[in-house]
Amino acid sequence: MSDPYELRVGVPSVEAFRRLRTDAGLSDKDPAAVALALPNTWHGVVLHHKGSPIGMGRIIGDSGTAFQIVDICVHPAHQGRGLGARIMAALTGELERRAPASAYVSLIADGPARFLYEKFGFADTSAHGSIGMFRLMHGSHGSSGSRAEP
């Protein structure tokens, strides 16, 4: 029996990106912002099932000192089959091939996803005296504010 899942290098369309995120329970993103972001992906993968995108993951960064793994998601109907691990393996494999040995790679782990990421060598930053922080931009270009995202 052949594998019904195909992992392809690249990024999804803006529409597929937004759908994948919301289907997996992640926040939606503004279409114009997504259109700006996707071409700036350092490396991305899209997981397809019967030709339709059902999962994805991206690496963003400066190509030298700092990288962040973002947008890891798998449609709920396909979760529990090791597909998140397949996406992570592809992303970390590309980092091993192309990123400088001194690069800092970060990610944000939501809930039990931390156990998957730990299998790929990621550790809680608080164990090293650091805490993760974030800021959300609100309004038009240049305006700011910060609040926790639900």
Short description, anyone?
The protein contains 4 helices and 5 strands; from the N terminus they run E-H-H-E-E-E-H-E-H.
Structural commentary:
With 150 residues, the protein is of the alpha+beta class. 26% of the residues lie in helices and 23% in strands. It has four helices and five strands; from the N terminus they run E-H-H-E-E-E-H-E-H. A five-stranded mixed beta sheet has the order 1-2-3-4-5, with helices on both faces. The termini are far apart. The model is unreliable at 142-150 (pLDDT under 50).
The top-level CATH class is Alpha Beta
Instruction: Provide mean pLDDT, rounded.
Output: 91
CATH topology: Aminopeptidase
Alpha carbon gap, first and last residue: 42 Å
Shape descriptor:
globular
* CATH H-level homologous superfamily name: Gcn5-related N-acetyltransferase (GNAT)
Question: In terms of structural class, how would the helical and strand content be classed?
Answer: alpha+beta
- Unreliable spans are 142-150
Helix content: 25-40%
CATH architecture descriptor name:
3-Layer(aba) Sandwich
Most strands sheet: 5 strands, mixed
| Count of alpha and pi helical runs | 4
Strand segment count: 5
Q: What is the chain-wise order of helices and strands?
A: EHHEEEHEH
How many domain regions? 1
Strand residues, percent? 15-25%
